[in-house]
Structure formats: structure tokens, C-alpha cells
Amino acid sequence: MAERPTGVTVLAVLCVIGGLLALLFGGLFTFMGPAITAEMAATDEALGMATGPMVMGLGIFALVMGVLYLITAYGLFALKPWAWMVAVVVQVLTLVSHGFSIFQGQLAGAVVGILIAGGILYYLLRPHVKAAFGRS
């Protein structure tokens, strides 16, 4: 079995951290968000667009993403070929997402996000990283 590159280990650790944070906040949004949103909306009319079901939906999405991050972390640690593909697809989707953010007026955040996702994608496509996952 190939030796795991240090950068892959770093990405896997970041996936674990992101997965745990997504599970934490997903749980909070799913189970406590609607009540908190209702209480805040009663005191602030500007919060009217953040409805309980919307917050709950975001919470469920975050829970799913947290599980996917943890599964991906396992695959990266174990150098599973599917994990490399998942990581590449996620970075491409992240690039597209940040590209859309530029058109929504979020230029600074989008540029930083594009640079980070682009750097990770570049790293994942390096020959020694691909070889570690059994890809040529």
C-alpha cells in the first residue's frame, strides 16, 4: 500500500473537524432552530424571512453534510480510491459555488474560497497524490 502524503492527512483531519462542526450545528439548527427563530422573530420583524422550517431544513442538510465529511475523512485516511474522487468533486462544486457568490456581490469571500478550493484541487491532481490513491 502506498504511503499517505502529508497533505492528504491534513485534508482528512480538516474533514473530521468540518464533519463534527456540521453535526454540532446541524443538530442545533434541526432541534432548537425553529424555537429560537420563533422567539427572535417575535422581537425583530427583520428576522421574518428566517422561518422555523427553513432553519430546520438547513439543520438537516448540515447533518447530512457532516456524515459525508466523516465518511470522506475515513476514505482519505485509508487512501480509498473513491475518497479521492469525492474530494475532487467537492472541490469542483466549491469552485462553482464561489463563482456564483461573485455574482451575488460577495467578492472578497468568493475570491478567498476560490483560491483555497483551487489550491486543494491542484494538490489532489498532483501525480504523487493520485498515485497514493491508485490512480495514474
Topology:
Blueprint: H1 6-31, H2 33-43, H3 52-77, H4 81-103, H5 107-124, H6 127-132
Helix pairs in contact: 1-3, 2-3, 3-4, 4-5
Give a written overview of the molecule:
- It is a single chain.
- The longest helix is centred in the N-terminal third of the chain and has 26 residues, at 6-31.
- The protein has helices at 6-31, 33-43, 52-77, 81-103, 107-124, 127-132.
- The chain has two domains: 1-79; 80-136.
- The chain contains six helices and no strands.
- α1 packs antiparallel against α3 and α4 packs antiparallel against α5 (107-124).
- It is mostly helical.
Helix content: over 70%
In this structure, how is the largest beta sheet organized? none
Low-confidence stretches: none
Ends apart, CA distance between termini: 15 Å
Alpha plus pi helix count: 6
Query: Nearest-angstrom radius of gyration?
Result: 18 Å
- Proportion in β-strands: under 5%
Tell me, what's the shape?
Answer: flat
Number of strands: 0
Structural class from helices and strands? mainly alpha
Helix and strand string, N-terminal first?
HHHHHH
Average pLDDT metric: 87
Number of domains: 2
